[in-house]
Q: What sequence folds into this?
């Protein structure tokens, strides 16, 4: 039996398009409401070269999806759902 992947999404309630994924179990961290979530997100953002253009443009970099240790930036809800449906990543 294949181990399920852990899906974590960093976003904010102030970001209107951050996350409304339905039918997929994931852990959601609102970086606007929790200092711990913000610190966890910044550790990912500030150590990953994927975010260089985002930071240079003055943006934050949410939503960020982390599936196990793979960081994905700016995925739309449908793209997250497709990843899970494709079998590349399973639900929690």
A:
């Amino acid at each position: 039996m294949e181990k399920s992947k852990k899906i974590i999404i960093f976003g904010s309630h102030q970001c209107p398009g951050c996350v409304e994924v339905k039918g997929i179990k994931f852990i959601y961290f609102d970086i606007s409401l929790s200092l711990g979530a913000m610190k966890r997100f910044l550790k990912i953002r500030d150590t990953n070269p994927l975010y260089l253009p985002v930071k240079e443009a003055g943006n934050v970099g949410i939503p960020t999806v982390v599936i196990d240790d793979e960081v994905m930036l700016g995925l739309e809800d449908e793209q997250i759902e497709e990843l899970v449906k494709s079998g590349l990543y399973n639900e929690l």
